[in-house]
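Can't attach files on this board, so I'm pasting raw text. These are the components:
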Amino acid sequence: MSDAEVIPLPDGPRRPTPRRAARPAAPGETAPADGPVGDPPRRRATRAGAGAAPAAPTRAPRARKRPADEPPTEPAPEPAPQPAPQPAPAGEATEGGGPDLAALVAGVEAVVEDALAFLHRRVGGDYEVDDFGFDPDFTDSVLLPALRPLYRHWFRVEVRGLDNVPDTGAALVVANHSGTVALDALMTQVALADDHPAHRRLRLLGASLVFSSPGIGELARRAGATLACAPDAERLLGSGELVGVWPEGYKGVGKPFSERYKLQRFGRGGFVTAALRAGVPIIPCSIVGAEEIYPILGYSKLAARLLGLPYFPLTPTFPWLGPLGMVPLPSKWIIEFGTPVPTDAYPPGAADDPMLVFNLTDQVRETIQSTLYQLLLDRRGVFS
Amino acid sequence: MLVTGVARFLGGRLARRLADTPGVDRVVGVDVVAPPDGIGGAEFVRADIRNPVIARVIDDARVDAVVHLSVLSAPPSAGGRSLMKEVNVIGTMQLLAACQQAPRVTQLVVKSSTTVYGASAKDPALFTEDMEPLALPRSGYAKDSVEVEGYVRGFARRRPDVAVSVLRCANVVGPRIHTPTTAYFELPVVPTVLGFDPRLQFAHEDDVLDVLTDALLRPLVGTYNVAGDGVLSLSQAAHRAGRATLPLPEPVLAAVAGLVRGTGLVDLTSEHRRYLTYGRGVDTAALADAGFSCRYTTAGAFADFAAARCGAAIGPGPAPLLRLLEALR
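---
Top answer:
Structure tokens for the assembled complex are below.
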């Protein structure tokens, strides 16, 4: 296949081009309706810091090797260890020359106040979870803030076609899976929560392995994920949620680097059946960049069997460098939402027509594959 | 009407309530021990449902409706698991055999439990009544409940003229009832499975009594899930009860459970530990469609229980931490 040639191989970080302008203009900067009170100013500070000081991105490529979500130093020593996981904005603000120290202090106070209020809610059990275990308080206060630096600064995700995602009502987002671990799903969730004008919550459908893994299963449920099975998908779609599914599953996420951007089989088309039953549109979503974060060069069958995993990846850095090998390569990402495929025009029994299901599955798959090729041509380099 | 298991909370309350219901002329309650606080206007007959004598009781009292509530969720204080299994399984078989021989019986209500759905990582978020368990329960109360339901289905096939109701109740909590679940949340510190925060559902004791009454009087025929709306996560429930959680790796929790089993403090069976790992939710839409709605949500039922029973947290609850946070703010 020719697609392997269009991909510039990872030849080290290029010059940090000021592509930031291409990023979707800061959308109406409102925090999710029920977000913590002090959040918007904090985030605005981040964005302002990054935009106002174009000199800042001239960090040496070396510096990028640090994961952006691990703050180097904590300017405000906080009693709360858990929440408010990004003190980075405060740091950037000081660098940019501190004209208004008072504003900074106020910002820090707001962060501390938020953190205390959050801890208070958690310790008292004073929050809500839905039937699936989705915990909006935890997602907005901990998970999204923890992923945001990765999304904004590490992968510099560019989102296209957000207007294809409806502001309200159910829809099924179907995307290509890659990247060894399912970071692509998380980044899509951040994209829709942060950059979509309606701040849509994407409810992910995950494999049962996710829910049987200690820690991961707990976090996944809190983030709104549930098991990828027909009853759950239909229940979520039936209640007007935006549902995200990665039908390639392990075959996609764990494929070797040599097969990057080649879509695998799209399961058995279960996602199409679910969408047809609920009569909701299918939104094809193409993700470029996730393939390069952990290039899989080989597998260890023994380790996979011992750990009970579907595969155990060997990448250029993992497991050779230990925990350092788990730092993803800072590839440049593009997430594009395509034109929705309507499913409400079919007759009632359509979900039970296997030929229709196969055809729709192929249509969605082809759309994503051709968009991937287009995006790869658009992308200047893997890391730029 | 015949109610089994009247020496226990639900049976005693239900017998008393039915006896006071206009239109119900005679209520007979059976159990192996006398009800500790009486059963009001209902007659108590000391009988063991594992014994064919139960057939005579049904015949003599001209019983037309049977409510089976003596499926034990925990081993009786004396006798252990083998006695529990015998009461649950042999008792049910014997009772159903007696009912089958009694032409007057036209109605059977059985309280089952949502434990019949098992608990696994492959479970859908909410079980509806027609779903099969993904991992069949292998021991304890859950397995007994599955077997009891199996015998009830067999009975329903052989006596199609009898209206059979099976009510699968979530963990019943409330200010007065004592179950392994209430004992668990009354512990000074709530042990949990490290790395998992399962979704739990509760049914309030009053709602369960109401639905049992409705099942008899309306009647509600068929199999229904009974649970308060919504779910609570385990850590959330523990914190709302003013308890700290103690996350332990599963093998450690199993070992601890083995150690404390004899003390009568709490019995964390392997089935219960699976529930504490993966959690479970059931869909109650069918019951709502049948016209019954629980007055208490899961959170409401738990709050009612916690307010009455989890008042004095011994040991380090989250309360001091909450006060510290208040002070800091």
